[in-house]
Design brief:
Layout: H1 11-30, E1 31-33, H2 39-43, H3 54-75, H4 83-109, E2 111-112, E3 115-118, H5 120-140, H6 146-170, H7 179-196, H8 213-235, H9 242-268, H10 277-283, H11 286-290, H12 301-330, H13 338-358, H14 362-365, H15 369-372, H16 374-377, H17 382-411, H18 436-445, H19 449-456
Parallel strand pairs: 1-3
Antiparallel strand pairs: 2-3
Helix pairs in contact: 1-4, 3-4, 3-5, 3-8, 4-5, 4-6, 5-6, 5-7, 6-7, 6-17, 7-13, 7-17, 8-9, 8-10, 9-12, 10-12, 12-13, 13-17
Amino acid sequence: MTDASTNMRLKLPVICFILEIILIILFGALVEYNYETDAKAWHNKTHSDYDNDFYYRYPSFQDVHVMIFIGFGFLMTFLQRYGFSSVGFNFLIAAFALQWATLMQGFFHGMHHGKIHIGVESMINADFCTGSVLISFGAVLGKTSPVQLLVMAMFEVTLFAVNEFILLTILGVKDAGGSMTIHTFGAYFGLMVTRVLYRPNLDKSSSKNSSVYHSDLFAMIGTIYLWMFWPSFNSAITAHGDDQHRTAMNTYYSLAACTLATYGMSALTAHDGKLDMVHIQNAALAGGVAAGTAGEMMLTPFGSMIVGFLAGVISVLGFKYLSPKLEEKLKIQDTCGVHNLHGMPGVLGAIVGAVTAAVATMDIYGEGMADVFPDVAKGRTASAQGGYQALGLAVTLGIALLGGLIVGFILKLPVFGTPPDTICFEDSIYWEVPGEEEAHEAQMTVMTPEETEKMNV
């Protein structure tokens, strides 16, 4: 099914090789180990080897890494004829994005005497940035070429790093689990890209924009991995001790409450009371998204459960009623429903974080205020912190929407090998699919000579 416009024989190798060569050169010139990974620097200090940050952060890194490559990858395999592309392109853009993110985040956060110092925490942060790109990938799933995805990742990682720097460094916003910086940014960036790439004749591929029994089962693998490891995701870079412990616990209960809300709402919104697997695959995860900003705050266990419950309700309602309206009225063709899983729950999480920050007091946080809200501990009022949290959401939405608009127009250039409307959501455009040739030969053998000649013409 590949034609001249979608042939990747030269386009994909050129962009892969050029990007990787540039990355290698930049890493060689700018990146070096931090003191915890450098042999000489580490042994110049008096401490136990088990004080190394590796032993505190690497278990969380492993969990986050599994979420990026297995969780996100398999979550998107629900399309009946796009499994290779869902997992394979997820693998490709994640491998590129984590390298580029190391550089971009290093420019803003990790420069020391002209060098970017990296360690296990920078690996986690790079994976966080990659997660945002994969969220955007979900919005354009099935309608883009691998070259387009790499170009999108290159720009999005850069904008992600800028947005993260503004929020965390300039505004002093707290967003440990990334409700704003990861989920809201990735969702609305991707939604704007898919709006610009709107396909008026996508209905010609509508038969393939659907699931079958086994594809939904594969997608549930991704859901379960994401659900299990989300407490690690939200707590991975919080301060050691009570902060990390509390974040994991808040996320844990938020996810559990969200899951029950999802099952209840799925049955309630169906005319026959049957569960919809799309809701279970996605909305059950919204509690992890919504607990991202306030997870390290004193949200309380019952507060986390309220947040998760609301996220599940909102997400299911989005899948059931809002997504069709977005496509019909605003021409936003959101393949994976990232607006319902990441966009709206991300905004909810940002709002919860702003309110929770605004009511923070020393009576509640004590000496822990310095970890959770360092600017408040230094004199900023709690209400001002809440205001900055809200401002962070506005900045994120602005950069995501404007950035997605610009990048969307760049991706419309015909040179990137985008598939035509009639053959979207189809692996065989870019992949060798087992059995494809055999099926074609079998079809030819049962055709009459006249039909064969007509087909060849």
